[in-house]
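Internal tracking record. Fields below are filled automatically when a chain is submitted to the structure queue. Please do not edit lines marked as system-generated. If the sequence contains nonstandard residues, flag them in the REMARKS field before resubmitting.
Queue: standard
Priority: normal
Entity type: single polypeptide chain
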Amino acid sequence: MTKSALQIERAKYTPKMPKALQGNVKIVSGKSTESVADQEEIKKTFPNTYGMPILTLEKSDDAVITKVLNVGVILSGGQAPGGHNVISGIFDALKKLNPANRLYGFLGGPSGLVLHNYIELTAEIIEEFRNTGGFDIIGSGRTKLEESEQYDKGLEICKKLSISAVVIIGGDDSNTNACVLAEYYLKKKSGVQVIGCPKTIDGDLKNEMIETSFGFDTACKVYSELIGNIMRDATSAKKYWHFIKLMGRSASHIGLECALQTQPNICLISEEVAYKEQTLQQIVDDLVRTITKRAVNNENFGVALIPEGLIEFIPEMKILIEELNELLAEGSATAKAFIAIATDDDKREFVIKHLSEASGKVFKVLPKGIAKQLTLDRDPHGNVQVSRIETEKLLIEMVEKQLSILKKQGIAKVKFSAQNHFFGYEGRCAVPSNFDADYCYALGQTAAILIADGKSGYMASVRNTTKSSDEWVAGGVPITMMMNMERRNGVMKPVIQKALVRMDGEPFKAFAAKRDEWAIHTSFVYPGPIQYWGPATVCDATTKTLQLEQKS
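SYSTEM-GENERATED OUTPUT FOLLOWS
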């Protein structure tokens, strides 16, 4: 593999660690825990892993002596910067505990466990991937571990390789699956532990014990650099409005963080739209007002940030999508009839006819391209594939139409020319920032120590992350503590509760206090690329979100 100069230098980087992980370690148990909601249902579902205590790692004078441990690791779900450092941290901690310990990587995500596809991760392999982005060391996948047959197939390979623990690195759904797997293996007295690690660039896996999911810091810095570049272009050309869609289907944390870093004219927050029960037309009216006000100052340019999942948070659109999911459900009579229709116009009329009156009106005013996207093939769960819906184009078209109407009425004459962008994959495999490199390595080390102590059903946790890394607090959190019951595919299931942007949260309040000023006055900030060497205030800084939440 040919390496760039950056890769060569990054390979030399030694992640900074909490004091507790720098020598011998002991585990201190705290109070027993309960789930965030639906306590009786969660306890009934997880009798072996419910109510376990929060764990904290502390320095010890005594060396930990362990038997030989073989551990398996799985990367699950979408990529996030830092995954390789989690694996490096696990590997180094295992070898420190006992040089005879072995680490196996299951290939292609959870399916690797079920299908028995694996490799042994040796020092030679690990060295190639330290401090690098991506998940290519073993690959990832989205197979869900939900059936006892899958669990038993996993147990077969664990027994064959003498694996006594599996680490699942993933988001909320993946860690929910980790908890289910841990419960199943404990129930069977299999001797196989399961530990989770919090990963997702979306930032929606967090709570009081998981301050941030890894990858969020790096991804937001990458997106903010790109946004800043576009802002500089906008102020140079002074003739385009840039509508930028950002990843984040279930929550708007990425959009909010990028807004705090770059100070755009407009940033829509999906959770606020839902809270205010705004219609699509009201959102467009707000956009038009800002664009018109800037035009008065002869500033016919600007930047608007739009979360990927916005359309599902607009109440009327959410109802429409639910009706469309039902109407076009795979195998249904209406779906078959829809597929048989030849032309797009006739398909559009068919859909309108079969929707409720209110949803029919909404569907009718949508641009044809967007309306068609809403009727495309569903995902494996039967839901519309939101990432395929070009929300930024929808808003541009509706703004153009509204401005045209105002111009004809003689109310406003605005020069409006727009460019659309979608930043998603650009941030998922970036070279991790110093924060993510350090944080992920500490998570991996913590996971290995939890395994050595015989723990299962825990998620590795590193807290106090706005302080210097030696002050970080490592430990373990029972996954059941984060769970509630939610309806999935028509059935109530235990899942980790997603963390949405809170209207009373410090990050949103900081944004809301400044957005009216940013809307009219060009206040752009240009963050530039991620810095890996230099002052700690630049290179090791955490996200604005974390700083505001921790009030540091």
